């Protein structure tokens, strides 16, 4: 279990994520305990063996109504920016 606070779109929210690793390795799945948000991290060793390629994919079912409309319009772009930054920082760190 991991916890963090995410600030996006002028709002800050706490997140508590359950993390699972596949038996074969190379796949990490984060599940938000309060919604349907699931983020899958795919880790693939490069052929040279010196690097690992990291991929991210999230899915979730937003709420209905006008709030859900705004989520569907803005959340994907916000998540893309956040994930781009995460991957950039990861690349710099390793």
Please, could you describe this protein's structure?
The protein is an alpha+beta fold and 94 residues long. The chain has one domain (2-93). It is 31% helix and 43% strand. It has one helix and five strands, in the order βββββα. It has a five-stranded antiparallel beta sheet with strand order 1-2-3-4-5, covered by helices on one side. The chain is globular and about 50 Å long. It starts with a strand and ends with a helix. The mean pLDDT is 87.
Describe the structure concisely.
With 94 residues, the chain is α+β, with helices and mostly antiparallel strands.
- Provide the gyration radius in Å: 15 Å
Outline type? globular
Q: How is the main sheet built?
A: 5 strands, antiparallel
Helical element count? 1
Beta fraction: 35-45%
Residue windows where pLDDT falls under 50 for at least 5 positions: none
Record field, number of beta strands: 5
Order of strands in the sheet with most strands: 1-2-3-4-5
Quickly give the structural class. Answer: alpha+beta
Question: Cα distance, first to last residue?
Answer: 23 Å
State the helical fraction: 25-40%
| Average pLDDT for all residues | 87
Order of helices and strands: EEEEEH
Our count of domains comes out at: 1
